[in-house]
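re: that chain from earlier
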Amino acid sequence: MNRVVFIFLSILLIVFPLTIENFENENVNYFELVKNITNELVHTVVKAEVKNHSEIYLTDDEMILFKNKLNELEANNLKFKNDLFKNYESSINQTNKKVNKYLAIYKYDKFKSQFGGIKGIYLNSYDFLNVEKMSSIKKIIDETVVNTLVIDVKTDHGHLMYDSNVRESYEINNERVKFSKASLDELKTNHNLYLIGRIVAFQDPLFAKTYEESSVFNSKTNSIFSKNGQYFLDPSNQKSRNYVLNIAIEACQLGFDEIQFDYIRYPDAMNNHLVYEEESNFENRTRNINSFLYEATKILHGEGCLVSADIFGYVLQSKSDNGIGQHLETIVKSVDFISPMVYPSHYSNGSFGYKYPNKHPYEVVTAALNDGLYRGTKVEQLRPYLQGFWHTLEDVRLNIKAAEDMGLDWIIWNNSSVYDTNYFTKIES
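^ sequence. v structure.
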């Protein structure tokens, strides 16, 4: 019987996670413990019960094996405890991320319901400490329907407008600190604002010049690519992607309600000499842009922020990606909102049947946004950038009316952050 007992004993020690704390008690008889656990099994097999430990005979080799199994069990139990703690910690973190996501959605829905939607203006963050400019902005917020500010976190020039801990920032020396978490919280609280942090993603002269291996390369000039002073990061390069993503995480932690990615694209240059880590074709371009946005959205939701992407206005009409990786049907699946820049002045003559589109702001904005809705973009997902430059007071108001007549939220863009309070009074039909 001793062999049968030993077999069962060995099996138990290997597969059954005994409470090892008992083994650490010097007063516990190991054999008695084994006997108690195995009695029922042994009885089932050999129709007998172990009355005392003298019935269990182990050779020296078996005793050594037995002790080794005990040691293994103790080690495994410790690992089990550690794994259990790690799993618990991971589970808590995942739960917190889910909670943060749903809190972000809840706060957004509550804000929209309370204030009648998102009605925003862009604030050039270089002006954040300009007392005169900020007084003008606050006046608009306090006296009109405007309830949302889009503020640069990372600018077109590659500057970070806050104190960053991202490692590359130290190497580039690109900080131009204008605001902090405290100043954003004060602005947000005192004026009941929804805050959107704008991040210029893959256009960055400072990063491109510092990390040339992560940038778009021009084989013809044997140098990194540039166009009109713009330098582009390679969207297929992991270092470039991580850099932008890490900034976005910090921006969310600063207190922004939403992170908005601009220049989320390849350079708009049909140049056969441009070199990327991955061949530039429709599949690769759209995959790289949308995989970045998808990853960013997942991570930022866990941090408590919603996510949007700026796209060219013509993306609403074009069935291709036009060489830049922006394709409507795919990009809308990766973010919470899209902001097409439907500026009438940017459409070529003859667009939408108008010889001079810029002279027909209401009609052009309406037609452009209808194209987006026709292709399946949801109303709640479509939040256009409207033209707040090169237009008369009446023209800007017509831009806004076009969006609101379609039940859409909106943001007015003016690079100088100059707005007239009369832009935002209601236009009657």
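The chain has a mean pLDDT of 87.
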